[in-house]
């Protein structure tokens, strides 16, 4: 009944139907993982195919994508209330504008499938290919915001997620949209061959992923014990000048809990003092670290001698006596959070960056694999950096684990932290190395090289997470050795759709 109603709505109210379909598709995202919701892409495809002109098709794709981004990224507005007096009024306009920008980047390429006038198999492939190209636009060449790719819906199935090792995030996103489009077509038109194709593709991917689990040789890395600290400091309290020492001491006290560990890990921006110049802060860290251990902590690096002043969002490695062993500076900064685009213009109307006010963070020099003493080399990733597919390491093959320090307190108890965690797990699978993720308010995890969560502190919990550092895979996954594999499936799909469209026109002539 629902399928027939959707088919009628496409004809009678196509724009409203596209909007509703975009909202429905969000149910497949973390933390809900309602997988059948991806059939909404089939509803969108029908809306495009029956459009009278390209402009109408473009509007329908825009409405679907607008609903998808708006409902999937609503939590971005919560960050504005960390300083409600200055930024609270901007929360709703900012989220609406972000969704509109991302929707426009999706609508332009995806709506071009209207010109193909293809039958369903070719149309489904074309939609999957163009949507994947839209992901490239917004994640690499566009606004640098690659959040919630369609592939993320499979984070609820470890077996499905393993396909990232072969076809990468673009390939799995392509397969996700194609499965959804074919399934939606079946539900609306009872074309069972399309459903059979969707089921066959789903079973193939699931089978390949399940086969991969636990079959690959592991690297004999030395045994190292971790302690992750999750102090659970609310963002509205985090930078209260009167409470800074209290939150710092909470991290120290949690670090001193009984238990054996070699590596102490604190989240992003967990130290509110300058480790470079504050001997007292380093002495306090030495007490928290203990003899024979190393600490990996998040703190801002500030160079006041430079003009203008230079600020980095950094990961410090500290020895047992508090000596600084290494510092990694964040490369991928968050627009409006860590720097203000077009500052000269926008600062005049009061749009100072949420995180830093009148001074922008500076970018680091690039990804690095950091080797400290006997600890296996790690690739540090600060917060947002973990969402970029294929960029979790420096590509040298030296990194044996991913270190992700983050502060998701900005987004409260929303779906945002769960989406962030899902993308972090995807990077572990692509790289073939375990993930160690320390989050201020959660979710802190340790995963194996297959992205499976081995230890976890959930959202809103306060405590420590003691776990062994899992081994990495002996050989990197194909996608790590040959990044171009990520675009094989989308390109083959697009070429196939184009050839089927040409063949149909030839037959009609």
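Sequence proposed for the structure above (509 residues):
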């Amino acid at each position: 009944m629902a399928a027939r109603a959707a088919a009628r709505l496409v004809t009678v109210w196509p724009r409203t139907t596209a909007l509703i379909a975009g909202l429905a598709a969000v149910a497949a995202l973390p933390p809900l993982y309602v997988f059948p919701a991806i059939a909404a892409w089939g509803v969108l495809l029908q809306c495009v195919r029956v459009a009278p002109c390209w402009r109408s098709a473009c509007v329908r794709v825009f409405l679907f994508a607008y609903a998808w981004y708006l409902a999937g990224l609503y939590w971005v507005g919560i960050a504005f209330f960390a300083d409600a007096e200055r930024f609270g009024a901007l929360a709703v306009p900012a989220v609406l504008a972000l969704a509109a920008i991302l929707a426009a980047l999706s609508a332009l390429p995806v709506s071009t499938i209207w010109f193909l006038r293809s039958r369903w198999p070719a149309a489904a492939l074309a939609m999957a290919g163009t949507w994947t190209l839209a992901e490239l636009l917004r994640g690499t060449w566009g606004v640098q915001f690659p959040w919630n790719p369609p592939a993320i819906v499979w984070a609820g199935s470890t077996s499905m997620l393993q396909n990232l090792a072969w076809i990468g995030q673009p390939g799995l996103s392509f397969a996700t949209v194609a499965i959804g489009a074919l399934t939606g077509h079946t539900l609306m038109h009872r074309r069972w061959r399309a459903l059979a194709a969707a089921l066959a593709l789903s079973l193939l991917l699931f089978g390949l992923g399940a086969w991969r689990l636990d079959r690959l040789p592991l690297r004999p890395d030395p045994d190292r014990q971790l302690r992750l600290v999750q102090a659970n400091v609310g963002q509205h309290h985090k930078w209260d000048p009167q409470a800074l020492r209290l939150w710092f001491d909470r991290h120290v006290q949690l670090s001193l809990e009984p238990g054996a560990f070699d590596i102490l890990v604190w989240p992003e921006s967990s130290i509110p003092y300058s480790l470079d110049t504050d001997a007292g802060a380093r002495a306090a860290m030495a007490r928290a670290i203990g003899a024979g251990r190393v600490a990996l902590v998040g703190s801002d690096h500030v160079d006041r001698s430079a003009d203008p002043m230079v600020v980095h969002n950094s990961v410090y490695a500290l020895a047992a006596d508090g000596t600084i062993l290494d510092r990694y500076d964040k490369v991928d900064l968050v627009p409006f959070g860590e720097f203000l685009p077009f500052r000269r213009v926008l600062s005049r109307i009061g749009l100072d960056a949420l995180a830093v006010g009148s001074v922008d963070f500076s970018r680091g020099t690039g990804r690095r694999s950091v080797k400290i003493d006997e600890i296996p080399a790690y690739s540090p990733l600060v917060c947002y950096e973990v969402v970029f597919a294929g960029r979790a390491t420096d590509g040298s093959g030296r990194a044996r684990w991913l270190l992700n320090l983050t502060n998701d307190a900005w987004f409260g108890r929303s779906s945002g932290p769960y989406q962030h965690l899902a993308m972090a797990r995807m990077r572990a699978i692509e790289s073939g190395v375990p993930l160690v993720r320390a989050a201020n308010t959660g979710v802190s995890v340790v995963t194996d090289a297959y992205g499976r969560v081995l230890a976890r502190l959930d959202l809103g919990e306060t405590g420590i997470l003691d776990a062994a550092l899992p081994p990495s895979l002996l050989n990197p996954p194909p996608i790590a050795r040959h990044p171009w594999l990520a675009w094989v499936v989308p390109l083959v799909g697009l070429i196939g759709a184009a050839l089927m469209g040409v063949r149909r026109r030839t037959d009609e002539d």
